[in-house]
Structures are given as structure tokens and as C-alpha cells.
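Anyone opening a protein record will find just a pair of labelled lines. With that in mind, the following record should read easily:
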Amino acid sequence: MLRVDLQGGFGEKGRTSIAVSDGATRIMLDAGIKVGAAGDEYYPALARPVADIDALFISHAHEDHIGALCRLLKLGYGGPIYMTAETRAEMPAALAQYADGEELKRCPPAEGQIRIFRPGDVLEAGSMRVKTGSSGHVAGGVWFSVEHEGQRLVYAADMVPGSAVFDMQPLPACDLLMLDASYGSDTVSGAERAREIASWVAARRNGCLLPTPLSGRSLELMAALDLPFAIEAGMRAPLAMQIGAAGALRPGIAESLREKLADAIDWQAGRALPDRPLLVHDGMGVAGPAKTAIPMADKEDYPILLTGHLPKGSPASLLAERGRAAWIRLPTHPTLPENLALWEDAGRPAVLGHSCELDVLRQMRDHLPVLQTEFRTGQSFSILQSGEIT
């Protein structure tokens, strides 16, 4: 029997985290923070002390999946931390922007704790087997499948089945599927949204601001654009690393992205905004160069396009609320048809959805009746041998 503790991301967006136990071994999948929250709500709601965690697995280096890592270390976690090489490379920037500064200074991740694996590897934690696969969300991003005595739980983390850039490996059949429900019942495909974004930017080719996460959506935006653009100078090396990640990208896309990156001009904070589209990170305006560039663009009436999640109270959200910024969501999570297909391919198992608010989850249930919406962050359940959740 597998015991599951929902530690963040269920009935809410952010601080994504679950813990899984077979009675002898306990593992934790992801340790995110919740942008816009404060105090304990910023971090995962740990069901048990960190001393009980035997292994920690990180799916990718976005803040809502890795931002609480230093908090766990401060609380005394000293076990192995499993992640891909790409996640390891992006981890310092993510923690510098979203971890508590004092915790990062005093409790940085120790190199001796980090265990590198490749997407597709099968890892061992006690009697549990943890299978991994590329998620299509970012270079080095993965989903996790936890197996024990014939039972299997699949935690999708963040994934993009229809990515124009990143490869995604199929999910295995399972007893419980924890889907990335970020977009709820949205049916608009990534290709359609990419065309809409390309049209918006083309109409403002002489200058517009595109805030974006450093990894993942940055390459999706680059793939969608077919005109000269600029990037914040500090993004160049991380973008080049993502483009060069072995096996992470769909066939044929790397060379096109490499050429676009070579042609992009560098922009640095403090300089005049360029006469072409400008990509800066992060996508919410709460950290990174976007924290400087967004107020600057707002003051100068420079067009702004937001393409991702807008946490309440964030600079990006406030701009959108007063009509100062346009918003066209570029799918970097599954659309409703993609989630329905994932569920079918996994054998129609029991389903939970993470990374969305309750009202959005309930709308999604109208299309996927087996979706269980009664579970929230802070709750726990068991998966019986029959596959029943109780």
C-alpha cells in the first residue's frame, strides 16, 4: 500500500510537492514555493519532519517546484537530492530569485547531496522504484512514476505533450495519475496560441516587452517568432545550454533556435528599451531583469505581452488588470484534450489534478468525471491494492 501526502499545489497554484511512503521508505517529489504567498503558505505544508524523508526528487528548476529546497535543508534534510543535469545548472538562478536570502546563504544545496540522472532512468528508493521520463516542459524536466509491489502512481509534474520545442516521453499505465491541471478546461492548442502571439508581436516589431521564465517558455517564444528580437544579456548562456541539451528537443528544432539566438541582440537593464521585441525573465515581474524592465516599459508606454501564469498581486497581474499589458497564454502545460489523452493512454486510472485553483479544477471535472476534486493541500490518502483511493 502506498501512502500519499499532498504538501502543495492541490486546490492552489504553487508550492507543488507530494510525499509518498510504502511504510518503510518515504520519498518527496518536488519542493516548490507559492509566489504571492507569505509565511508558512509560501512553502510546502510538510506532513512529517524532514528527518523522515529518505530521498528528494526534483522535476525541474521552476520556482513552484524547487524554490523551497533551502527551507528543507534549513529544517535538517541531509539525504540525496535527485535531479537532471539541466535542473542542476538552472538551480542557482531559481534559488537566488525565490529562496529566502538568509536560508540560501546558510543552507545552500551541498554538491555531495545531489544525484544526477537522465530522463528515462529508473531510480531506487528502498523498495520503491522511481521511473522517470522527459516531460516536454523544459530541458531536463521530468515526470515521475513511483512503483511498489504492483502499485504505480504517476506524478506528471509540469508537462507539455504538444510542445513545438521539447520532447516528451509517454507516461506508463498506472493506478493513480496526478495530472498537471494548470489550464483546466482550456482547449486552445499551443500551435494556435503561438500563431496569435506571432501576429501580436509582428504588429509591434519596432519594440515590445515579452517577460518569460528563463527556461521552457523562452524557447517556445523564440520558436514562435520569425523576426529580429533582443534578449536580456544574462539569458544567452542559459538559453544556449537548453538548446544544446542532448535529447531534450524535438528533432530538427535545435538548429533553428541556435540561429535565432545567434542573431538576437543583447540588452542590459538600465539601457534604453530596444527597437525590437525584447525577451526578459521572469514572466511575472517579481524577480530577475523583468522586475526592472516592466516598470520601465510601463512608464514609457512600451507595449507589453504576458504569456503565462499571473499570480494575484504580481507586477504582471496588476498590469493586466488595468489594461496596460496584453495577455495571450502560450501553452506550457497540457490543454484539456491533451490531459484527456494522457488519462486514456494511462489506462483510465483514478485522477487528481495539481497546480490550479478549485473552481478551475471543478470545471475540468465536467469533462473528466473521474477527476477527484475533494483532495486539498494538507490532506493524505492511501492507494489500496485494489487501486481504490481511501
User: Anything to note?
Assistant: The first helix runs from residue 63 to 66.
